[in-house]
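Q: I have 339 residues here and want to know how they pack in 3D. Can you give me a structure?
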Amino acid sequence: MRAVVFETPGVDNLRIVDVETPRPGPNEVLIRVKYAGVNPVDYFTINRKDVKPIPHIPGSEFAGIVETVGSSVRSVDVGDEVVIYNRLFDGSCKYCLIGHEELCVNSGLIGVVTQGGFAEYAVVPASNVIRIPKGVGLDEAATLPVGALTAWHMIFNRAGVSPGELVVVFGATGNVGSYAVQFAKLAGATVVAVSRRADKVKDVLMGLGADYVVTPDEAQSLINELSNGLGADLVIDAVGQATWNLSFKLVARYGRWVTAGALTGGDVTLNLPSLYSREIAVIGSTGGTRSELIKLLDLLSRRRIKAPIYSKMKLEKVREAFDAMFRGEDRVGKVLLMP
C-alpha cells in the first residue's frame, strides 16, 4: 500500500512509499482510508524526535470503509463506512469508567503512538471504530474526530455555553475554530469570530453562524460596544501564545476562558490578581468522548451542523496540504488528504 512516512523529523522529510499492508489482530479492524484530515497535531508529530514506530505514518483523523475485521470483532462488518475515534483507551481506568476516554491514564493518539491514517489502509482497535449514519459523507465524517470533537467538548462539556452569552472565538478559520463558531451559535450565543484574515473569510464565517467577524485589532472595541464595557462571557482561544494577552483581557468578570491548543506556543504569563479579582475561570480541554463523536455524527446527519472543508488533495500533495492549513489566505475549515 502507499503511505506517507518519515524517519527524520520535518515536513520536508515526508515521503510517499510502498509499505506492507497491515493485518488486523483479533480485536482490530483494517480500514481502507478514503479521507484523512490534516491537523496541527499531525504537524507536531512529524516534527517530534521521539515518535515511534519508525518509519512512522502520521494521520490522527480519518474515515473510510471496513476492509477486514479480526476474529473477535462483532461491532462492525466488512463494507461498513466508518470514522475513527482517535483516542486509544483501556476502558478500565478511573476516567474511562466515568465515560471520559479522552483522559485515560493509558491513552495515546492513533497516528502519534501508532501508525496513522495518511495511507491507503490503517489498522485500529475495533473499540475506536464508529459507523457513519446515512446522509453523512465520508469526507464530512473525516472532519469530526479532531476539529469538531475538540470544539464540542470544549464548549459544552468544559465551558458550558448558555443562550444569550457573548462568545468570542479566536482562530475562527481553523479546524477547531470553524466548528466552535457553529456550536456557540447552536447554543444560542452571540458569536464574535476573530481572524487576522477577517476581510477574506467574513462571508464564510457568517454562514457558519458568526454574528460578527473582526481582526484581533478590532476585537477590543467591538466587545466593549456589545457588552457595555463588561467583556465577553466566554473566550475560546486555541491559538496560544500569540493571542493570549488579548483574549484573556476580553473576558468579563465571572467569565470563562477556555483552550484546547497552543498552536503559536504554550508559555504565557498570567497575572494572578487579574484572575482572582475578576473571578475568571481558566479552563483546559482536550479531545472529547466517544459518545460526543456519536452525537456529532447524528447532528451532521440531520444537517444541524455543517462540515467546513477547504480543500481535498491527493496523498502526493501532503506537503502542500500542510502549507494550505497554515498559510491558506482564505481557508476556513479542513484540508483533507485522499489516499
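Q: Anything worth noting?
A: The mean pLDDT is 96. The radius of gyration is 20 Å.
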